[in-house]
Amino acid sequence: MNIKIIILFTLLLSLFFRVFAQDTLNLDIKKAVELTLIESKTLKISESKIEAAKARLGEAKFNQYPSLSLGGTYMRLNTPNINAKSNSSGGQDPGNGGEGGLFPNGTPDITQVAFGSVNISQPVFAGFKLRHAVTNASYLEKAAVLNADYTTDEVILNSINLYFTLFKLQQTKRVLIENLNQAKKQVAIFTNLLKNGILTKNDLLKVQLQQSYIELNLLEVDNQINSANFQYDLLLGLDESTVIAIDTTIILIPRTFLPSYQDYSTKAFAQRKDLASAEMYNRAAGEQLKIARGNYYPSLAITGGYISADIPNFLSITNALNIGVGFKYSITEIFNTTNKIKGAKASQVEAEMHSEMLSDNIRTELFREYSNYQTALKRIETLEVATALADENYKSTLNNYKNQLSILTDVLEAQVNAIKARVDQINAQADLQLSYYQLEKASGNLESNFSN
What we know:
Elements: H1 3-20, E1 24-27, H2 29-39, H3 41-62, E2 67-76, E3 112-125, H4 129-195, H5 201-236, E4 243-246, H6 261-271, H7 273-293, E5 299-311, E6 315-328, H8 331-402, H9 408-442
Parallel strand pairs: 1-4
Antiparallel strand pairs: 2-3, 3-5, 5-6
Helix pairs in contact: 2-4, 3-4, 4-5, 4-7, 4-9, 6-8, 7-8, 8-9
């Protein structure tokens, strides 16, 4: 064979493997959650919101400190015409250069002006607005942290949902492949029986059709697996071609009946971060109302400063220190304060209603998830029996068919029911685990399952 053809063939073969080779990652649920928390863009947004809230708190605290300002001006001038007039005892107007005038030696040569100032002001009283502004910003910062904690629970649950979705699809594929192999064997057997004249072609067509249905279902499941796998790769920050192999032992974690609903309700109202965050927003709204009311009061500040000026050939000022008290009371602001108070009260009512609605939603969510978990436990027991019965029915029907006591349609129907029962059982086992985590999230305890 020509050496160039061999090289070309080798290059094409290596390219083929690079394109189609896929890394497989064996992933347990704890590792999946860890990767999710590291890569989650939603959590990174929450962290940014916390930093912004901290900055606003720092700004509110800074406003309590003295304010210091520096100022300076330097100007170049042309030769000005200065006409300084003053009434002398004789009633004369000496003008610019008259004897006894402001400039007895003539108009000074002023070509530049420079002056600077330093001013400091310390708020003493501002209607308690500065203090309430700090408290308000502090509550908002705490709310941002609590929101991030609640968002963490939502991100974890989203990852767990995808985890069990992929698990169910992969296990469904395994069952379908087993049954497809079995169907192929039946087709081969029935083909030989047809050749020997023992079987009708109609029966062969039925088992071939059954094989086609299984292949179509397998294609659909493969498509769903690829979609879920791609979505999970993005969520976990993995290469998009990474194949995720779910830990099949996840369904073996024992789950039993849990404490009473009331116990979970007590835990939820003590631990739910979104409820605690709503309380912080409620308190912040109360502080905002106090800030609005502070406009009814005057503001008072201690001020001080230093001034320096230099006008060559004319004027020089140094060591000009000043200290005093500044007082401000805006009459027009009083009328607008009424509107600000109304707006702050409306915001406070909105925050209170949001908190109450959230409490109702938590009760509803907790009751639903608690009931779903109890149902999932019972469903497992029922489907274990149903799967055993479906398998037994298929074996019995197949045996009857071999003994000519039943028709092929009964066998195929029994096979479909056996497949469905096994898939349902797998899904139920995964749904039980998922239901447990959903209940933990509803009670505000989800993250603690992965903190160790």
